[in-house]
């Protein structure tokens, strides 16, 4: 459905409806527009995510993981702060501790804190929101301007997402990999949802991965919010810019289609408007610095041929070359199975027109702007993580646990193969490629 001539608000509604109507039978809620529960959600804007904390499921997840004590401890630390500097120290300390605890829990270190599976990404997400809510309502005696509070919130976000904790060992012999994941999303449709990309990030952070050629790779990870405004504010570039010149490979990861992995060949400079975790929509070109030099498309430099050839595990891995474009001289969007044609305008990359496409676009554009043409990097879409058939209320079940573990294992294997394969293959826009192509489903994975 064409939305280019509609106003942003109406276009977002139409986009969401078209996504919902295009779902295949049995498709995951991760691809759908918000369901009936969305009508009960708070008004769009900051604080929407925090308002969901009052529902039963987030409280259960926090209690059953032992993460329900993080926000009260943080609030006590804020009350003890006597200056902005003291508050900033508390914010950074508790944010970093939350990330470390989530990583340790996922990797089997320390007490589980409850009976929820250790590899669950949801305790980190909900505990962070509980902490940001405490910070948002905190009124210190020394006074705090809106700008100063916003800076503290930014510090809490970056510290609790692992973005400040990326460290690699000195010396040679171990390859350096940077991998990113996402928060859960579409929570007004199903508040129980987690994100397998976030779970993989927690499981792999700081680990050594053995590569097929007998080498080793050190993986450092971070997670990003499913919010348009953060991306427009440059959170991706700030987090990745210091590290891309020093790594041997990077990959952004998000949840994609049901039952399959996709290596997204092309990324488009377009936002399609699907609502984010704040129920905010954004339609139009991806907002980046120096828009005059913004390309319509960026291209993966991951070694996709080697990855797809070596794929093992329960889920197939595809090289996805499909895009949606407005051809040069045209006015209507056209789906292209083999990538964009010269001079076309982007309307969806292989990964759709949501934040998964945008993080891939931003990361690969940053690669190009930093002059790192030989650096392998791109985007991997994981399968949708689904609950078992008939489970409509439990926060976990055996099928969910099996699939999450399998997805993480395949992400680890993809990283290992990609590192061993070395530099990625160059593919020109519009080139003929003998690859598996998508089935026409527009993705909104985050």
Would you spell out the secondary-structure blueprint of this structure?
Layout: H1 8-21, H2 48-51, H3 56-65, H4 70-79, H5 84-106, H6 122-137, H7 146-160, E1 174-182, H8 196-204, E2 207-210, E3 216-224, H9 228-232, H10 235-240, E4 249-255, E5 261-264, E6 266-268, E7 270-272, E8 283-285, E9 297-299, H11 304-309, E10 317-320, E11 323-326, E12 334-336, E13 345-348, H12 355-369, E14 377-382, H13 398-421
Parallel strand pairs: 1-3, 1-4, 4-14, 5-10
Antiparallel strand pairs: 2-3, 5-14, 6-9, 7-8, 11-12, 11-13
Helix pairs in contact: 3-6, 4-5, 4-6, 5-6, 5-7, 5-8, 6-7, 8-13
The low-pLDDT segments are 1-41, 423-445
**Percent of residues in β-strands:** 5-15%
Form type: globular
Average pLDDT works out at 88
Looking at how many chains there are and whether they match, the oligomeric state comes to single chain
Secondary-structure element pattern, one letter each: HHHHHHHEHEEHHEEEEEEHEEEEHEH
Please report the total strand number as a whole number. 14
* Tally of helical runs: 13
Q: N- to C-terminal separation?
A: 22 Å
Largest sheet: 7 strands, mixed
């Amino acid at each position: 459905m064409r939305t280019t001539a509609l106003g942003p608000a109406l276009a977002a509604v139409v986009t969401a409806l078209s996504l919902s109507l295009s779902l295949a039978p049995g498709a995951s809620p991760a691809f759908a527009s918000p369901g009936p529960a969305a009508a009960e959600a708070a008004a769009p804007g900051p604080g929407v995510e925090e308002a969901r904390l009052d529902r039963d499921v987030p409280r259960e997840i926090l209690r059953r993981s032992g993460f329900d004590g993080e926000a009260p401890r943080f609030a006590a630390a804020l009350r003890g702060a006597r200056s902005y500097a003291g508050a900033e120290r508390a914010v950074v300390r508790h944010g970093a501790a939350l990330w470390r605890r989530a990583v340790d829990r996922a990797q089997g270190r320390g007490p589980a804190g409850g009976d929820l599976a250790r590899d669950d990404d949801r305790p980190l997400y909900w505990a962070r929101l509980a902490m940001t809510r405490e910070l948002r309502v905190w009124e210190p005696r020394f006074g705090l301007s809106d700008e100063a509070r916003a800076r503290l919130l930014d510090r809490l976000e970056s510290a609790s997402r692992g973005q400040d904790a990326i460290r690699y060992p000195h010396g040679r012999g171990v390859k350096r990999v940077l991998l990113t994941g996402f928060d859960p999303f579409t929570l007004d449709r199903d508040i129980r949802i987690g994100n397998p990309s976030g779970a993989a990030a927690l499981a792999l952070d700081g680990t050594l991965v053995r590569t097929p050629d007998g080498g080793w790779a050190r993986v450092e990870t971070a997670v990003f919010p499913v919010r348009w405004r953060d991306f427009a504010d440059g959170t991706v570039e700030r987090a990745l810019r210091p590290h891309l010149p020093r790594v041997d490979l990077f990959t952004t990861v998000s949840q994609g289609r049901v039952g399959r992995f996709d290596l997204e060949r092309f990324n488009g400079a377009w936002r399609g408007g699907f609502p984010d975790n704040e129920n905010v929509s954004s339609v139009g070109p991806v907002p980046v610095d120096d828009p005059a030099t913004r390309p319509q498309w960026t291209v993966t430099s991951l070694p996709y041929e080697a990855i797809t050839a070596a794929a093992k595990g329960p889920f197939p891995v595809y090289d996805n070359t499909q895009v949606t474009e407005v051809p040069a001289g045209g006015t209507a969007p056209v789906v292209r199975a083999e990538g964009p044609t010269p001079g076309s305008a982007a309307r969806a990359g292989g990964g759709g027109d949501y934040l998964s496409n945008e993080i891939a676009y931003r990361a690969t554009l940053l690669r190009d702007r930093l002059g790192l043409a030989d650096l392998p990097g791109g985007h991997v879409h994981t399968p949708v993580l689904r609950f078992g058939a008939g489970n409509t209320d439990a926060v976990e079940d055996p099928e969910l646990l099996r699939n999450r573990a399998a997805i993480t294992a395949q992400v680890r294997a993809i990283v290992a193969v990609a590192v061993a394969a070395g530099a990625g293959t160059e593919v020109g826009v519009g080139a003929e490629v003998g690859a598996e192509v998508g089935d026409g489903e527009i993705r909104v994975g985050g």
